[in-house]
Amino acid sequence: xxxxxxxALFGLVLASVLTACSNSDDSNQQFANAGYVQFYNGxxxxxxxxxxxxxxxxxLGAASYGDATSLIQVEGGVTEIExxxxxxxxxxxxxxxxxxxxxxxxxxxLMLTGDFANPTFNEFRFNREELEDHFRLFAVSVTDDQxxxxxxxxxxxxxxxxxxxxxxxxxxxxxxLEYWAPDSDSDDFDEGSYTIYLTAPxxxxxxxxxxxxxxxxxxxxxxxxxxxxxxxQSGVEVDLVLNSSTVSNYDDINASAQYRIYNSxxxxxxxxxxxxxxxxxxxxxxxxxxxTDFTEVEFGDYRLSAESSTxxxxxxxxxxxxxxxxxxxxxxxxxxxDDVLTSVSFNExxxxxxxxKQVAAANLVSDFADVDxxxxxxxxxxxxxxxxxxxxxxxxxxxxxxxxxxxxxxxxFDDNEDTQVLLDRTQLLGLNEEQNYIITIETSDGSPTGxxxxxxx
Length: 457
Description:
This protein has one helix at 9-20, and strands at residues 35-41, 49-53, 58-63, 72-74, 77-86, 92-102, 106-113, 120-127, 134-141, 149-155, 164-169, 175-177, 189-190, 192-199, 206-209, 213-215, 220-227, 236-241, 248-251, 257-263, 270-275, 284-286, 290-291, 295-297, 300-308, 315-323, 328-335, 341-347, 356-363, 371-376, 387-392, 397-403, 405-414, 420-425, 429-431, 438-443, 451-456.
């Protein structure tokens, strides 16, 4: 008999959040009387994927790469669940429809893996237990290269030499890891702070070391090993999935970072340096309206300095730029309304840029506050445009998520009389490459309006 997905979704989401945010599972909760389902997206080239029950067509949750839905309570039995995405025309694209057996007393973790063009939907199950001062730990690898890893764990502050091997984690193989120091109360892990290490199977060479992780909830944790994406597509990351839509993500504490720099000046070459405490990087000469490629560096705090090649007074020194592990940062050089050379920096998206684009837009025009940037498709005007970044102040960067498509970009300022002033507009442009796009609104001597829109990628 096919069961129905519970309609009390708000109560269920609240219950799942309470489960993930309490010190122990509510002793009055009867796990045996219901089934539980959660969806995690582990496909590195996927779109945001939506999960719904087909009988009532209610949305159960959505997850982008590295994200999960909340834990949802359902009646035990077979439930029909559908997964889909929306395309650039806002049409639904069905990815998978399947009957899923959700046993009572168990959590069924649905996990999307592999190439999104031909994805795999895994069903992992384990019994839910009422825990007190302990937690359980499961692990799975979803890396694109299907690599296996040895997982080690140590008490917080202990080195790798004191870490304990928990087991080998293979691609799409879901296993429970065993605690190395069980006590008389439980065989499960003691709540506390730990460090996680990854090595190649049988190796003692650490390829991933987490920061200190606080396992403070008495519940089941799922450790997911996955590859990094977006602007920085190298290295391994670890996700911890609990019973809520909040997924804790951990980079290797020794991972490198990267940056790229854009010179928005129309007529000046700018010499730029980014120096750390221990070394001085070679200066880079950036021609007008040009950018560097991504440069990989060690993580840390850096001193950014820049100087015009034609005006020695057009300069700044020792501006702080922090590059954290596994982070990609864009640095934009521009002149403010006082003709002072300055900069703005921001983190670039680490999400896949295949179907959805996490676009960053910067207002480098000091003349106008609250500039609106419209993304106008071929059958739209700015009044009907679905996508807009509103009220971008000078020196501010804001973002929007767009479906891969063709857009005309229109930058508009509303003056004090509520009259719209057109700063610039582009031709119809394809924002459809697997790139991290940056859009800047700048002053320009060559533009009829004195301003221009630039698209960087």
